[in-house]
Amino acid sequence: MADRTRIIRFIIKPVVFLAGLGPAVYLTWAALTGHLSANPLSDVTNETGVWTLRFLVITLTITPLRRLMGWNDLIRFRRMMGLYAFFYGTLHFTTYVVLDRFAGLVDFPNGIVSWTTVRNLLKSIGGDIYQRPFITIGFSALVLMVPLAVTSTAGMIRRLGGRRWQALHRLVYVSGIGGVLHYWWLVKADVRRPLTYAAIVAVLLGFRVVYKRVASAVRQMAGGRLKPSAPGKMPPELKVED
Amino acid sequence: MLIKRPADIRSSEITDQKLYVNRRQFIQAAGAIAGAATAVGVLTKGAAVLHAVQPAAHGAKLPNVKKGSPYSNTNGEVMNTWEQITTYNNYYEFGTDKDQPAELSRNFKTTPWTVSVEGECAKPGKYSVDDILKGETIEERIYRMRCVEAWSMVVPWAGIPLGNFIKRCGPTSKANFIKMYTLVNPKEMPGQRSDVLDWPYVEALRMDEAMHPLTLLAVGLYGEAMPNQDGAPIRLIVPWKYGFKGVKSIVKIEFVEKQPVNTWQRMAPREYGFYANVNPEVNHPRWSQASERRIGEFFMRKTLMFNGYAEQVASLYTGLDLKKNY
Fold first, then answer.
1. A59 and A65 Cβ atoms separated by less than 8 Å
2. Which residue of A35, B37, B41, B295 is most buried, as measured by CB atoms within 10 A?
């Protein structure tokens, strides 16, 4: 194994992994020690949501950076970033279920620990997803990430085959757009932050469209000397070494 | 046959060879810098909420505040602390984050202060805060404060009934509404440097709402002068309406004949009506108003009709369809 690969695998990757946990650790610490605002429950919900978007953006940035800058080692971090987006999305949904829906039940006719509570909670979550467009889209964006998280292992890539795997994982684009809309539709008046995320996601997705066109034009100009990789063959960036 | 000679290319138009050779690196570097700058900007935005902001310094004690008002009935609910009331604010003139008013209103100057009284009244003119308080007894009023965002607090305000001041202004028979304006001063109010809202902030009441004894011109809380982040030096409190009706840092009071359009109402007419009465049965189009989180509590509470002041104010709205007039 080359030195470069070992440094990435044994030093940089663990460091990045720990850094990704940072926001969750910091939030927990801040919530427990009174370092959040007077409404800490709302802070926790908001922050986990924003971190989901941030990790989605980081995930979507990796391919453009590789294409533009030739930093191909970044591919080794893409799965981790995607899984962190899913991790924070799950935390965000959990805080919403507990701090917003459960705490908002108000009535516990048969006590807090009871089937009635479970039933009312499910009804309350379902009603919210059904009635409120910003919840509908946020929930969908998260649900779409589930198959991506499940098929993120090397074994699953092999089983699905690179092409099919890649096609499936394009769903992350939908999650990215959904996440941004979820944020946008929630805000009361000041849309500057959601707008920033929308612009970034638009650039990152737009890059892919433009890049594809340019690449195929270049291929045509080269008169077929540059052939696209044969169908069924795993594209080089999907080779996983661990 | 005419052979055209191609135009000369001026030497200034020829790209320097060095630049041409390095064009890829140049584009890449520019792209990387722009990308990194944007990323840093977004990744650090919003982190503000995570450093607990300092509460307001305690202000001057107000003289002879009369306690025990019969209008202070909050049903034994616990008051929120000075720290909560002065660190968690919606005051877009100082920024749209909850901690920004505390952070960014420190240098806001509230003396001298004049309130300009205009429109359909016998005694228009400039009034200082002292003029307004002259001859009045400042009362403590412990009220629930229900934000339209489904959180609430219990606050011990100090102030005078707005009705007392209105009587002194002598409104004419054409004065059907009272319209109040917040100061515009982007130098001291950094939130006004962007047009998130249509400045100045304006809210209006029907005359009978304004004359109701619950309606307060507040000049303080916890018996002390009003902290800047809570609307110093003088603000409106209408406890049966959503918090945004309470115009802060009032500089103008205008008596008008026709029903005005308020700031939030103009911004999103489907979401905010003229009245903005607290009503658990009329949901905000994007969230439920049936319950609320009292700041400091885990479990939410049921939101009460007219924020619990139905007994005193419901009669103001008999015959009015509250679902349409939200």
1. no
2. B295
